[in-house]
């Protein structure tokens, strides 16, 4: 995985170096000056891409963060603070961080249009404040001093390109780290992210904080680029245009950020040369954003898809058992999970009615029942996704009431979902690491091979739904938590694969140390995997015990398989 990060970072750095050299040596001074702005805007776009494209939150005040960075840079320039522009813009970026966190706080509760309104409101308020306080040196026309070695316009281009490169390379590493995977997981499904032990507040606030820092740096660079700034440089309209372009271009990709920067900088230049009003640009950006949202594909993604078509088709390679499996964890003996008198109501519907269930350590307990019997509700309650229930749930004898889903996951309750919720932008290995925490390369390969999954570098977007379900299970198992809840893991898997999966599930306690609660409709798989089963009907336990005996009970056949008692008795 580390090699992949280094490879991606080296490719980014090399591409930028080549691009930079071509621009520096081949283009006239005026164009180099213009393209410098492309990269400054590209940095602002990358910052926005982190919050929106990567983490799935709306921020319509990104230029306000840039404004904070620019203002602080201007102030440090005015007072002649030591360190020069490179230090000032870093301090400017840091100053934007608390503002980013403050804006991120509402994002913990708000989504979509409501978050858009809050961030837009902040951008409007910031507009007014900036217009009133003005930029340091604005009235006296004090120019922000560029670093001595990069003073000329061409030199400043190199300074900006270098900053862009450093940010792009660092983001390449971060995006392949657990934090980067957590952002994508949150964007895709907050519930699934929480089930993997990810703190949603931490993921969201870190995205806003880092994004504000990068945006603040772009503001500092803009100060050095233009010399003096006015509040209009960071107006609400600028933030809106940035958002539209980020949505259209795919600013969370380095390629998309540069493409977006070119649009924002070069399009007005084109309109100017054609004697057309500048507002035309914003209209086209908005149309482009609508187009990207309706097709679900940004410009960067379209380019990457077309580039993939040109390359030879990648064959999904199965993982190879290179070494030993992750070590078995020893958990306390006795009852790993206990549910006592659990009652859950959805309005007038009683989904669970005084349910009692035990999953002893070292066993696989099956939970079966017809559709609507309450099985998923039980999993939701155990994993902490129901705010209210009566009764009690205990993990190794400790009650879990009042404990959040993220904390339950960290304490040792892992779950999978009926429909896969893995972020398709991740690679197989990134997902397993997200779900399981640190795991060495050979153990990862072996675990994937044990489940018959593809290799760690395989993009999840290229694997079928059945394989994604297996990855769900592999991720939960790799965590080696005391209790694993598998919600219909064989859905979408072929019959033969389901039987094989049954054998694997049966071996989980012995191999990894986890106890399993398995919900499944496939009775062959249940027979193969479970030491005991519990049968639900209408939210009540109607039978429990050894699989063969329970599945033969007339009451179970009637409830679950639709066989009338009389017929079953015949
Ligand atoms: N969010 C909800 N609001 C209202 N009723 C709900 C909600 N979720 C589930 N129910 C109801 O609770 C009952 C139990 O549903 P649940 O999904 O837990 O059953 P299940 O056994 O998992 O079914 P399936 O096998 O189809 O997944 C059903 O009557 C269902 O309609």
Number of helices: 23
CATH third-tier fold name of the largest domain: Rossmann fold
The general outline is elongated
Number of domains: 2
Would you identify the CATH architecture of the largest domain?
3-Layer(aba) Sandwich
Low-confidence stretches: 565-570
| Approximate helicity band | 55-70%
Ends: how far apart? 60 Å
User: What is the name of the CATH superfamily of the largest domain?
Assistant: P-loop containing nucleotide triphosphate hydrolases
Main pleated sheet: 6 strands, mixed
Structural class: alpha/beta
Number-wise, the strands total 10
Key features of this structure:
570 residues; alpha/beta; Rossmann fold; 2 domains; 6-stranded mixed beta sheet; 4-stranded antiparallel beta sheet; 59% helix; disordered C terminus; nucleotide-binding; transmembrane helix
Question: How would you describe this protein?
Answer:
Residues 565-570 have low confidence and may be disordered. This protein has helices at residues 2-26, 29-54, 62-78, 84-107, 112-133, 153-175, 178-188, 190-195, 200-226, 236-249, 254-273, 279-295, 299-310, 375-383, 405-411, 428-436, 441-451, 465-478, 495-512, 523-529, 547-552, 554-561, 565-569, and strands at 335-346, 349-360, 364-368, 390-395, 398-399, 413-415, 483-487, 515-519, 532-537, 540-545. The chain starts with a helix and ends with a helix. The chain has a six-stranded mixed β-sheet with strand order 6-7-8-3-9-10, with helices on both faces. It has a four-stranded antiparallel β-sheet with strand order 2-1-4-5, covered by helices on one side. The longest helix has 27 residues, at 200-226. The protein folds into two domains: 2-233, no CATH class; 335-569, P-loop containing nucleotide triphosphate hydrolases (Rossmann fold). The chain is an alpha/beta fold. Residues 346, 349, 351, 369, 371-377 line the site of adenosine-5'-triphosphate.
């Amino acid at each position: 995985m580390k090699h992949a990060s280094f490879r991606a970072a080296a490719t980014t750095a090399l591409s930028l170096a080549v691009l930079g050299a071509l621009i520096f040596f081949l283009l006239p001074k005026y164009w180099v000056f213009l393209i410098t702005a492309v990269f400054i805007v590209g940095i602002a776009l990358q910052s926005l891409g982190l919050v929106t494209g990567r983490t799935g939150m709306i921020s319509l005040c990104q230029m306000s963060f840039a404004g904070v960075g620019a203002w602080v840079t201007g102030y440090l320039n005015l007072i002649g603070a030591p360190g020069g522009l490179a230090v000032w813009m870093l301090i400017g970026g840091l100053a934007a961080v608390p503002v980013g966190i403050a804006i991120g706080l509402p994002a913990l509760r708000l989504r979509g249009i409501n978050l858009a309104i809050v961030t837009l409101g902040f951008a409007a308020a910031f507009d007014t404040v900036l217009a009133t306080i003005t930029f340091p040196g604005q009235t006296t026309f004090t120019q922000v001093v560029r670093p001595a070695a990069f003073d000329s316009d061409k030199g400043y281009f190199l300074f900006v390109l270098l900053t862009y490169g450093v940010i792009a390379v660092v983001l390449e590493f971060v995006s392949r780290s657990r934090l980067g995977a957590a952002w994508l997981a949150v964007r895709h499904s907050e519930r699934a992210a929480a089930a993997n032990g990810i703190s949603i507040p931490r993921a969201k606030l870190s995205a806003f904080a880092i994004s504000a820092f990068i945006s603040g740096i772009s503001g500092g660079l803009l100060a050095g680029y233009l010399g003096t700034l006015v509040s209009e440089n960071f107006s609400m309209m600028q933030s809106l245009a940035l958002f539209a372009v980020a949505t259209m271009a795919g600013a969370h990709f380095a390629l998309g950020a540069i493409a977006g920067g070119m649009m924002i900088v070069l399009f007005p230049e084109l309109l100017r040369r054609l004697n057309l009003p500048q507002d035309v640009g914003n209209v086209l950006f908005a149309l482009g954003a609508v187009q990207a949202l309706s097709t679900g594909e940004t410009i960067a993604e379209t380019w990457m898809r077309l580039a993939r078509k040109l390359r030879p088709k990648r064959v999904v390679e199965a993982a190879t058992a290179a070494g030993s499996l992750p070590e078995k964890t020893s958990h306390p003996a006795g009852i790993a999970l206990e549910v006592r008198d659990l009652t859950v109501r959805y309005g007038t519907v009683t989904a669970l009615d005084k349910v009692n269930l035990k999953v002893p350590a070292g066993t696989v307990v099956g939970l079966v029942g017809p559709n609507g019997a309450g099985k998923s509700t039980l999993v939701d309650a155990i994993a902490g996704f129901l705010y209210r229930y009566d009764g009690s749930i205990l993990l190794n004898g400790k009650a879990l009431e009042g404990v959040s889903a993220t904390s339950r996951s960290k304490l040792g309750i892992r779950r999978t979902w009926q429909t896969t919720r893995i972020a398709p932008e991740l690679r197989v290995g990134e997902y397993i690491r997200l779900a399981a925490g640190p795991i060495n390369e050979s153990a990862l390969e072996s675990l994937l091979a044990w489940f018959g999954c593809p290799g760690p570098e395989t993009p999840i977007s290229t694997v079928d739904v059945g394989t994604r379900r297996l990855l769900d299970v592999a991720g939960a198992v790799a965590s080696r938590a005391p209790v694993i809840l598998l919600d219909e893991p064989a859905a979408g898997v072929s019959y033969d694969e389901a039987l094989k999966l049954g054998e694997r599930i049966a071996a989980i306690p012995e191999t990894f140390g986890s106890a399993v609660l398995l919900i499944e409709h496939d009775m062959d798989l249940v027979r193969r995997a479970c030491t005991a089963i519990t049968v639900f009907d209408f939210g009540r336990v109607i039978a429990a015990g050894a699989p063969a005996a329970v599945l033969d009970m007339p009451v179970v056949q009637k409830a679950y398989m639709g066989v009338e008692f009389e017929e079953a008795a015949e």
